[in-house]
Amino acid sequence: MCELLGFTSAKAVDISDYLRTFFSHSDVNPHGWGLMYGNGGREVIKEPISALESTFLSDIIDYLPPQKATLAHIRFATVGTVSEHNCHPFTGTDISGREWTLIHNGTIFSSKHSHRYSAVQTGDTDSERFFLSLLDCMNERISRSVPNEHERFETVNDFIVENAPRNKLNLMIYDGELLYVHKNLKNTLCFKRLENGLLFSTKPLDDGVWIPFPMAQVIAYRDGQEVHRGDRHKGTFVPTLEYITAMDAMYI
């Protein structure tokens, strides 16, 4: 199972220790890693190898300045080959010029949108197709009028709610201002309140207090504070026996 990390704060915070612990989980998620960081400019770095085998990730973390917004991902390949194009985060720009970044843990089993993107995506993952579909949805909304923050949230929320049924959608999306967070599988995402900011992770990263993230609900944060919350939806992902058997087989 891939793992996700997200951070949001109004004040730049040193989260390097959390990143080191997070990337240490690459021993069981060996098929790629990725990191989005940058205050005033967004940098995305990724490799199609275990983070533990990277020759430069350790140096990046050692010299990483305190951050206000960060996303990190470690990959266990379930859909798509092991390649840099299939590593998260995925990034893209909408027609208004806003840059979007997504990390995803899950599988898109059913989507009326995603298959059309197979010919244009750079890799071959369902996560990238989902991201391209989200960008098109946002562009369609922008073509009518550039949405304000709340309207932007509603567009993302509606898209996730529409696609959640029958799909495993644990994800984080960053649009340069808002961090959108969602899970629809139990016991797969939690968060910790830091002195400044909020840290989200698939698994607890220390012995502190980690709170389970709400199920089947999109919540958006700005500068470490919740600003928008969607309604609870019914698209909870319930693993079938076939899914559990397939996941177990991958880890043998």
Q: Can you tell me about this structure?
A:
By secondary structure, this protein is α+β, with helices and mostly antiparallel strands. The chain has a single domain (3-250), classed as Glutamine Phosphoribosylpyrophosphate, subunit 1, domain 1 (4-Layer Sandwich). It has five helices and 13 strands. The chain has a seven-stranded antiparallel sheet with strand order 3-2-4-1-10-9-11, with helices on one face. A six-stranded antiparallel sheet has the order 5-6-7-8-12-13, covered by helices on one side. Helix 3 (126-144) packs across helix 4 (149-163). The two termini are 13 Å apart.
Question: Which features characterize this protein?
Answer:
252 residues; alpha+beta; Glutamine Phosphoribosylpyrophosphate, subunit 1, domain 1; 7-stranded antiparallel sheet; 6-stranded antiparallel sheet; 13 strands; 24% helix; 27% strand; globular; disordered C terminus
Largest sheet, described in full?
Answer: 7 strands, antiparallel
Shape: globular
Compute the number of structural domains.
Answer: 1
Radius of gyration over all CA atoms, rounded: 17 Å
Number of helices: 5
How much of the sequence lies in strands comes to 25-35%
Trace the largest sheet across and list its strands.
3-2-4-1-10-9-11
DSSP E strands, number? 13
Mean pLDDT: 92
Distance between the termini: 13 Å
Oligomeric status: single chain
Structural class: alpha+beta
CATH architecture: 4-Layer Sandwich
